[in-house]
């Protein structure tokens, strides 16, 4: 019985060491994937914030007071902080981008495995998914209103005047949407990796 | 048979025992959160669908209707919450089935984490979408010449506000659900 146990123990040791090697290798690739996704989230939200934050357009529009007089040229401008939905969009992206930078710093400078930190970061990732998605939703709704207008409440479309502003805004919203998907991917990756690690035993 | 079983039993117990009681607790919590999510989604849909209001506008001298269908943002909101409601029914049943068969729980937890986070994105974006449009309706915007409409359609706007609050609550519940699944998956990783 004892000898049997010893044999099985020896076999287990060999297996365990090999398994450990595989595990560390797996963890390394998982970590590099995570870094990639985090960097992607950071870059996308950063570019979206900058693109939208610097977005403004001034245009001279002929404005006719009365049909008899010649039209007066009035300069009008579109700025991102004129609409509260866009302010929310920029703020949510700025928060997400700074959080992504902070999480990269925290995760990849801490030595060894810090379980509490890892858990905290996954929890905050989930919050970021909600934040960035809702910011995108708000900005998309207002941008769509700018493109199409709404005849029922007499809100006129403004993108025919501010074409450049609208195009840039659309690009920023698209980038931010991809950034939100990167955050979503991070949550999925972490649950997948913990599932993998738990199913090995 | 009994003698061969006995030596393995204590070891087996050490490794396998800790998860089950914990998961049973978590799944009960999971089910109650999912039922809450269902209630929130249904409430949000019902409140926004019943928001239609017809009012006489003195300035134009005609009757005008305010409907949620007039804005694509609110249509998206309703569709997203219908999806979330259906999803919550299905996952409540799944979660209940896990309670009766605990050996499948890890697989289910992974699926829950996957889909919960997707539905969270859906509900959060729907809340943002409807909130953005509703805010313009409440305050108006001088810069682009969009006039506010909530001074005319008071009931419509109250319904919208209620629906948005419930939807915010639903996204909070979804965040909790994702946290719960991720946390219980993390707890299964051996130390």
TrEMBL record, chain A:
GO cellular component, one term: plasma membrane
Region (Disordered): 1-20
Keyword Transmembrane found: yes
Membrane spanning stretches: 35-54, 85-108, 120-147, 170-192
Stretches assigned to the Casparian strip membrane protein domain: 30-181
Protein's cellular compartments: Cell membrane
Coiled coil: none
Keywords: Cell membrane, Membrane, Transmembrane, Transmembrane helix
InterPro entries: CASP/CASPL, CASP_dom, CASPL
Bilayer topology: Multi-pass membrane protein
NCBIfam families, A to Z: A_tha_TIGR01569
Quaternary state and interactors: Homodimer and heterodimers.
Family membership noted in the UniProt record: Belongs to the Casparian strip membrane proteins (CASP) family.
Protein name in the entry: CASP-like protein
Species of the source: Lithocarpus litseifolius
UniProtKB/TrEMBL annotation, chain B:
Binding partners and assembly: Homodimer and heterodimers.
Membrane topology of this protein: Multi-pass membrane protein
Record-level GO cellular component terms: plasma membrane
All copies of domain Casparian strip membrane protein, residue ranges: 29-172
Primary residence: membrane
Entry's localization field: Cell membrane
Keyword Transmembrane helix: yes
Superkingdom of the organism of origin: Eukaryota
Keyword Transmembrane helix applies: yes
InterPro entries the record matches: CASP/CASPL, CASP_dom, CASPL
Residue ranges of the TM segments: 31-52, 73-100, 112-138, 159-182
PANTHER family tied to this protein: CASP-LIKE PROTEIN 1U1 (PTHR36488)
This protein's name: CASP-like protein
Organism whose genome encodes this protein: Lithocarpus litseifolius
Keyword terms of this UniProt record: Cell membrane, Membrane, Transmembrane, Transmembrane helix
Family the UniProt entry places it in: Belongs to the Casparian strip membrane proteins (CASP) family.
